[in-house]
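A quick aside before the break. I want you to see a complete sequence-to-structure record at least once, exactly as it would be stored in a machine-readable document. Don't worry about memorizing anything.
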Amino acid sequence: MSLPILSLKNVTISQEDKIILSNINLEVNRGEFIYVIGKTGSGKSSLMKTLYADLPLKQGEGQIVEFNLVGLKDNDIPFLRRKIGIVFQDFKLLPDRSIRENMLFVLKATGWTVKGDMDHKIDEVLDKVGMKSYADKMPHQISGGEQQRVAIARALLNDPDLILADEPTGNLDPQTSTEVLEVLRKINENGKTIIMATHDYALLMKYPAKTLKCEDATIFEVVQRTV
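That is the input. The structure line, written in tokens, reads:
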């Protein structure tokens, strides 16, 4: 039996000595799709930041994609993030570079050197999200939903074991949100583990999945009908 892709035991997450979440015990297995819900300020983003090592884990035990989050060294963080794809609410595309150049920037930053390999990988991931024909456009030339598709493609570049999506539909209208979630669900169906923080309960009702709720400084699983 394979190890969980994520395991947190008796974890407390703090920022500037303020406890955000405490007594977290959580396991995520490979291939799962999990929602994390909760009000603004309930700790969703702090949890995500802890998982991709933007916030250090100081209390409890944490393992993610075979990395120990406790005592993680700064020079190990880039290696951790190669195994985790991150999708943000605000896309974070470089505005002065084309879609292809945005992708090249990430590949070069993570050690790719062969142009043919890079071009092939970029075409592959853009094709998965239906954006291959947009590769030479600038970010401002495409819609918000299309930019988020590109951001998802970017998260797939290094074939990560896990995708963390932090409010990926937060800046999108309902129809576009549905389209983006369908892209993520398809990626999940192809074997990728996805943890998605969201406040969009309409999406949860349309695409039910295991749901964790941040509330009163803790995290617990909720059954779909009570969210």
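Two observations worth writing down. The chain has a mean pLDDT of 93. The two ends are 32 Å apart (CA to CA). We'll return to this after the break.
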